[in-house]
Amino acid sequence: MSRIVLRGGSVVSADGPVRADVAVDGDEIVQVGQVDPDVADTVVDASGRFVLPGFIDVHSHADGLLGDTEVALALLRQGVTSVIAGQDGVSYAPGDGAYATEYFAAINGPHPSYRGGGVGAYLAAADGTSPLNAGYLVPAGTVRFEVCGRHDRPADDDERRRMAALVAEGMDAGALGLSSGLDYVPGLFQDAAELAALCAPVARAGGVYVTHMRGGYEANTAAGIDEVAEIARLASREAGAGLRVHVSHFHADADIVLGQLDALAQRGVDATFDAYPYIRGCTLLGMPLLPPEVSTLPREEAVAVIADPARRPVLREAGERRATTSASLGPDWPDMITLAHIAAPELAWAHGLTLREAAHRAGTSPIDFALDALAASRLECSAVMAVRNARPATELARIFAHPAHTGGSDGIFIGAHPHPRAAGSFARYLREYVRELGTWSWTDAVHHLSALPARRFGLGRRGAVAAGAVADLVVVDPGTVADRATYESPRRLATGIDDVFVAGVPVLSGGELTGALPGRGLRRTAERPA
């Protein structure tokens, strides 16, 4: 079998970019340095470009979409070769996937083939069906739903044991860890003791507890970090092994983020985090507006409550109060929420408008338009959320400079007007924080976007351009790589990365998909490149 030789480029080492060829045989890098191609070898001209290990998106919502050609192209054009799914406590496995498909319809969408079978079945469904790889976190909210249903009460001892058994089963099947989403349902009802019980099998297996912390971050960050530390303490004691933690989309003022990371370290908690290179967020429209007792209901019951004129005054008052008093929004909330996805064709005109703009056109109030949209779409709505205090890129740079930072997009691909982070995050890291601001060297970029994620999440022989490593590779033009997605045009593809290989197979050539599907479900392993 012929090799692939990437010739004439530079490989980023500890000392920066160094001129080197890369030879790939099968799914493995076999030589880095001066390579003299054989006649049978396929040679890719990498002159003037850098050869980097494929980027790992440690927080993705492409759970069921990696076989979608538009999604795959958007990720590969950024250099992403692997994603970690199962985020925020809600995804398909374990169970039959119905809860996640309903509750996270506007975030993850339906899975094309998973209908049950647990984590092992989810990972198997990723084998050979996409150009990209997918790892998976056992979602704590889905686990709770499988055992406790929609109850908002604390789990009893037997329920905790049953939930922990489901987590252990998922870890045995190759899950990378456990995720929680403590502002979502049913994560909202999971206390530290319950989460610690679920994290104990994760600690024993050497996995990672990944959390969307409680309370909306920003000014409430300290309380969220206190809970993370308590969960780690209790789980480590129960497991007899230290629990490693990872904070999802850790966005707040840089002093808050860095101070709280120091606080975790002082408590002996082994922590990493991700943060994407944008100020605004994106989530379910109902999350900041609907009271939990409505969000907990089965979808059709919730829609009936929202659509009931007799209930509207209470919901209107509750929604306005929740948005106005939230840590992230505040009194100007109708101007801070931009409609990303409404699964109601008659409201397609509202995509990309703020709630205030959409309400004005509809001749109603912002809260009533939001509630009407939730009812019409059967809760399948998402929104891009501005923040009270917009932070400049230099503020984010202080956060990204922390050695425990990993690249994560929190990318949501569902909707007519999604957040640009899905199509732009990794190219934006390289354009803004390597080329323009100099926050990272190219060596730093490899650490944050490839090496540390692979090591942290047990992704084996990935995250390096070295002999013996899996040949997940991206060829980057350092002078032109850039994000093009904006809040106004969120689906524009990145530029400057035209050639990508997954397991040694070309999946992007000349900026276009090749049609090859070498991606696989990534099972947790301690194996690393030599």
TrEMBL record:
Instruction: Write down the InterPro entries for this protein, in alphabetical order.
Output: Amidohydro_3 (IPR013108), Metal-dep_hydrolase_composite (IPR011059), Metal_Hydrolase (IPR032466), Metallo-dep_Hydrolases_sf (IPR050378)
Name of a matching Pfam family: Amidohydro_3
PANTHER family attached here? COLLAPSIN RESPONSE MEDIATOR PROTEIN, HYDRANTOINASE/DIHYDROPYRIMIDINASE FAMILY MEMBER
Q: Tell me where on the tree of life, at the top rank, the source sits.
A: Bacteria
The molecule here is called Amidohydrolase family protein
Q: Record the organism.
A: Leifsonia virtsii
Q: Where is the Amidohydrolase domain?
A: 43-507
